[in-house]
Amino acid sequence: MCDLCVAAHTFVMVSLKDGNLALTPLDGDWVFKAINDKRVVLDHVGGDGEYIDMTLTARPPELKDFLRKYADDKDAFKTSASLVFARK
């Protein structure tokens, strides 16, 4: 068993750019700050120190609504962190 392993989900925006597949992760630091500043209301546990300690526990419908609402937010999904896969 791995002491550092955590069963968790990662949220990414999937898009096509110039025929390439781009995966842009949700910025955890942005979520942490938005929840702590009360700009975003999502059920969660932890997060007293930094975002790495926070686990979102919101139900799927709330998570879907949240992701749809912020899908175009360039701070929530920073394209500079995108992983781009080019077709050979």
Structure explained in plain terms:
By secondary structure, this protein is α+β, with helices and mostly antiparallel strands. Helix content is 23%, strand content 22%. It contains two helices and five strands, in the order ββαββαβ. It has helices spanning 28-36, 60-70, and strands at 12-17, 20-25, 44-45, 55-56, 83-85. The strands form two sheets. The protein has a three-stranded antiparallel beta sheet with strand order 1-2-5, with no helix packed on it. A two-stranded antiparallel sheet has the order 3-4. A hairpin with a 2-residue loop joins strand 1 (12-17) and strand 2. The N and C termini lie far apart (37 Å).
Question: What brief labels describe this structure?
Answer:
about 25% helix; alpha+beta; single chain; globular; about 20% strand; 3-stranded antiparallel sheet; two-stranded antiparallel sheet; about 90 residues
Give the SSE layout.
Layout (H helix, E strand, L loop, with lengths): L11 E6 L2 E6 L2 H9 L7 E2 L9 E2 L3 H11 L12 E3 L3
Antiparallel strand pairs: 1-2, 2-5, 3-4
